[in-house]
Amino acid sequence: MRCSLALAVVLMAIAPGAGVSLGQPAIPAPRAPGGAARIARPAPARDDILALADKYASRLGPELAGQDRQTVAAIEKTVEGGKRAGDIFFKQALDTAVSRLTLSLASARSLAGVTVASAYLVTQSGRNRRALNLFGTALHARKDGVEDAIAVFEYALALDPPARARSSTC
């Protein structure tokens, strides 16, 4: 009840009059350029996301220099070592790499390095929601990657929709 009330207050603050008419949505449907309603598209497939990861890694990887190249190499080495050691160690290595890259992104280090490294993590574990979120965030921060970021986020959300609904909190 408290969550619903808070959501209603937020919606009314965002869109004045949003809760007044029960027959209309509180927030209008997104519109494509030209005013036409956007048609819902299916979530991207895993292969689509892996192709995006390969695209950014191959495009940005050769441009990396110095510290970025070393960081990506260290993350690859850590994840590969975790893979050889077994599933538990692989998951731990992946979690450590995602946390490290998240801090790099938050501290405004090289966006290209974070993009390449997060793309690598997605290619290693395309169902890891943290890696997908990091990759999507890195793409969104790039001016040329916004549409691709949306695809990554849609894929991550589509992995387990019932879990997303169960975990929503206020």
Concise synopsis of the structure shown:
With 170 residues, the protein is mainly alpha-helical.
Fold and architecture overview:
The chain is built from 8 helices and no strands. The protein has a domain of 116 residues. The protein is globular, with a radius of gyration of 19 Å. The chain is mainly α and 170 residues long.
Name the descriptors:
170 residues; globular; 8 helices; mainly alpha
Approximate strand percentage: under 5%
Shape: globular
Q: Biggest β-sheet: count, sense, barrel?
A: none
The secondary-structure class comes to: mainly alpha
Tally of contiguous helical segments: 8
Which parts are unreliable, with pLDDT below 50 for 5 consecutive residues or more?
A: 1-32
Average pLDDT score: 75
Distance between the termini: 10 Å
Helical fraction equals 55-70%
Order of helices and strands: HHHHHHHH
Rg over C-alpha atoms, rounded to the nearest angstrom: 19 Å
Number of strands: 0
Layout of helices and strands, plus pairs?
Elements: H1 2-14, H2 46-60, H3 66-85, H4 87-106, H5 111-124, H6 129-141, H7 146-158, H8 161-166
